[in-house]
TrEMBL record:
It comes from the Bacteria. It comes from Rhodopseudomonas palustris (strain HaA2). Its EC number is 4.1.1.44. Keywords: Lyase. This is 4-carboxymuconolactone decarboxylase.
Length: 126
């Protein structure tokens, strides 16, 4: 593991997903999934999200589309919150999911809209 890339990834992961969420994921890591958590932090968040060529907002927008298409509701929920943190507006999220529905199928759009509304309600509650 490259400590510099891992540390950069940990910083970005916490900034996007929230410190409490990341700390909980790491706290619950055991011998089985700890290597996976380290890989996600170093590779996904450090080596990829840590690149300068795309801003975090753009990366969030791409993630929303890809995760919606892959039908990964737990990850989509987490990344909707992260997208809001990265400055993606609700209107932009709507347009992303309209694009998903057009190119990946209406059922993917239906689920994406439903999850987004649930996340917005949670965020609005505070």
């Amino acid at each position: 593991m490259d400590k510099t890339t891992h540390d950069k990834g940990l910083e970005i992961r916490k900034a996007v997903l929230g410190e409490a969420y990341v700390e909980n994921a790491l706290k619950n890591a055991d011998d089985f999934n700890k290597p996976f958590q380290e890989m996600v932090t170093e590779y996904c968040w450090g080596a990829i999200w840590g690149r300068e060529e795309l801003p975090r907002k753009t990366r969030s927008m791409l993630n929303l589309a890809m995760i919606a298409i892959l039908n990964r509701p737990h990850e989509l929920r987490v990344h909707i919150k992260g997208a809001l943190t990265n400055g993606v507006s609700r209107d932009e999220i709507r347009e992303i999911f309209m694009q998903v529905a057009c190119y990946a199928g209406v059922p993917a759009g239906v689920d994406s809209f439903r999850l987004a509304r649930e996340v917005f309600a949670e965020v609005d509650k505070g």
